[in-house]
Amino acid sequence: MIRHTRASLFAVFVAIVLGVPAAEGRDGSAGRTSADGPKYIFYFIGDGMAAPQVHATEAYLGALGAPGAGRIRQLTMSRFPVHGMQMSYANNRFITGSAAAGTALACGIKTNINIIGMHPDGRTPCTTVAERARSRGMKVGVVTSVSLDHATPAVFYAHTPNRIQYRDIGRQLLGSGFDYFAGGGFLALADVAAEAARSGFRYVDTRSGFDGLKAGAGRVIAVNPYLDRSKSIPYELDRLSAAGPGRDYEGSITLAEFTEKGIELLENERGFFMMVEGGKIDWACHANDARAAIGDVIAFDEAVAAAAAFAERHPSETLIVVTGDHETGGMTLGFAGTGYEAYYEKLLAQAMTFEAFDSRVLAPYKAARNPAPADVDGAMWRIILEHFGLDGARLTPGDGDGEDLGGRRAIFALDRRAATAAGGDAQHEGTQGEGEEEGREGEGTGGATSGHRRRPGTTAGRPSSQNVTSRLRHAASSVFRSGGARRTCTVPSSHRLPRRGGRRAGPRGRALFVLARPFRGLSGWFSWVY
């Protein structure tokens, strides 16, 4: 077992990032000794994930067992013994973005907004921790729930002055020399399978092909069989929804499965480095969809649990780092309108994410009504009640709302399983967050630009069709801001949403940082500022 102090454990990871040279072997190659640090390194990044997203998920899992009791079920990452906080500002802006924040996490330098793996001048590449691991003879893997050429995965293998240079980023992936890429697809490469083969990769994009991958398969690109228009894997809530889109995603591969397969393919005597990103936590929070974010945090933590299980088998050789690049959306866990009470059990009734609702329900609803209704009518409130359990038409007391959950019981059972897998007794914890909203850079073709949502407010004049769309989306997802202890939704049909000049919900300045050796046992939360 590695017996570093908490401070020196952090120093081990910093040493790898900064490139402290490994011992030289007899043949002149870089050898490995215990002083070189851990043999197996996992780097988990929850995009847009900070303390509010983690605590909201734990409160939701706790509410499954004891609704309204204000109890939590700790996630695997929360039971790690070493915790801290980090400041995630960019070199040229206080409110960071995934490219600049990811470059800081990958290279250990501050850079400018939109820059991938380069210094602020946009010309000088910085060496990433993944590239250093490869130079030490370790195998390297990159796993993500979004496209493989998106900002966070890209900062580990690519160097470009702008994150939207997807074709260039994709080609740098193929020439990276890394061993395992898995999760989403590519935004700009035309014939990915052919280009991957020419670059020496085995390319699979089916469940059977994925399951057939075994140790010794060589360099692999494994893409989920189901991708959305942004070339990302489905939201976990949609994947599990038997009453909604889940029936269309049979055979979809989870982030935990991609992680487990990476372990199987990468394990070798010289060790490995694997970065795993939960990328759609960020997108859900841009949309203020609390339940979608919680689902993807659960999926992310299940991937962490897979690494923790591996660490139990290799306790003296494994380092797991879990962090977030920034917070997104200014998530609020309670406010004065509810007397600071929380009602996470209300989220059980949500059958699909905002994205699935937009495409599968709202789009055909609007297409059948030309022009679209100027406000939320009774028919739409019935749809919202069916898919989200929110009875906004009558603003009725919450005791009987959303009782007919149908296929959503399957999600409930799986989430209960996640709560049980989290282990340990539920603990009383305070859940208090901050709710300011901040901006971020545009995400380009496949990012969160399409996911920015406005919060409820008032505006003069007749609402546009887009305002109606926004109101519907917000009414369906903003459970945290429901006012009144006995209400399921307090967004009346006359409510208006403001046009805020494109101002967007975005990442905050602080992000959760967890540096962990899971084999040390359980530990409560504590933090300090680096």
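[next item in queue]
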Amino acid sequence: MTFPSGNPGQNEEEASRSGGAPPEGALKDSLHTYSVCMLCSNDGGTVDDSVRSVLQLSQLRRVDVVVVDNLSTDGSEKTLRRMKDSGLISLIERRCTRGEGRQLAFESSKGDYVLSHMDCDDIFDAEGISSLIDRYHAEFEGKAVMTKKRDSPEASNITIAPRRVIDLVGGWRPFNWGEDWDLWARLESVGYYSFMQYPVGSPPHRAIKVRTERYSGLSRGFQVRVSKYADAIRMGRRVFDPGEHVSIVQKGALATARLRVRLAAKSILPVPNPNFAEFESSGGGKRASYSVCMTCYNESSTARDSLNSLLGQLSSDYEVVVVDNYSRDGTYEILKEFEKNNGVKVYQRRSSRGEGREYALEYASGQYIIANLDLDDTFPPLLGEIVGRYHETAEGKVLAIFNSPPPPDLETGWVQNVTIGPRELIRALGGWRNLKLFEDWDLWSRASRVHKYAWTSFRFATNVTVHPETRSAYGRLKNRYERYHCRLRLGMKIFSPGEKVGPSQRLAFVAARMSVLGRRVLAGQDPGFKSLDPALYVELRERPNRELEVPPEGQAT
């Protein structure tokens, strides 16, 4: 999309006759492309000047402008439609929260870099924005940067970021308040956020509108506070600053917000760093290279030994992220001790194993993810060697490493394994899905479809725990049911041709079939995928013990 030259005061017809954007040689920067993503909601008094002030940037940069209008009714929509019809902007008209609007604009934009939080109630200075971009490339290239006029009563901030970085953390989420803070906090958690001092000498804003109508009237002001507080609670953000005076009205709004969140059918994952402060974070802290992502449920008897065996072999390049499925045996209290004394990141989430691994992935900041090392096992000091061999033999892929020996537990169809892969690749594959079992097989299968999967065999865990619940007749029946249920959801075969099927297996199979009736089979994986395909095997190292057996296909979950 190209934009006409001219000034903000010329009409669309004149702009259309002006011959489009200036020739590439006249641009200050013809290498990069930029998308300005704007929101509008009844901004009739400023929308024309606001958008035209942004369009002037096309005289200096290769720019496209995307505006999302929240179904305005004050004439803003007519102004924006005329601009769209003249080819000046891309326009989306939809009822949405601010976070949804920003994500819509982002998904519809085309630039290598995105400029956001530049909305239709403010007027901008093209030279100031261009200077801001120059400073970004000189000092902050590759990161997401926020600059804000601190003394303004409004959120007069501008965010500049490469498209890939915003994609990395999943973009904006559907908050109506604090959607920018939520994005920055997630960016900061993975080492991609920096704050830039507002450029007073060449400011990017010419005018900032103060929207006092938001709090006009007791009822309206109370509703706005409830909405703000509810969004803060949902993202895990502190509602009030320490020592802040809280009025009776604010306390009432907070109680109402908490009730609203509790009754909501759908909640949003809190940010990994709820104490994030946008003005204090420079993004200069060291980012972990590797995140060990662990899940647990009622592992109090093994948690200490497991974490001690792991932490004793980790350097500062590693972080440990643990998601506890609301254990009831004291596991969580043990984890909090390690959080306090050893810096382990600890979270509680009601989740299946697949969801737990996905939560850990979201909280992780490392460039590489090491998953499936869970708290029911202990680990010899071999992780560093394994990681080094991964880079030598399977760099850029998802590598499944099967613990051998001991042999797999044939009754439960399981063998201990660990998965290593680049964080961005795992996210691009869709991460882990909501499965109690076979969640790792599911991820490997999707990686294999894009030729990004490999496997090997290496003894990395000792004292592998066999859970007592699988030893009883009921426990085995329940385990079979869960296995069959997950295999059916993945489109996998349950029994091999000619396999003898016992009564308990038939019972578990019928129950699993009934439970998945009407549910859509998960898409994206290959039901015929063989996790132990010899063609996908890599030698992690020259093993001294050549007689180690490879677990037979079908025994690895």
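[queue empty]
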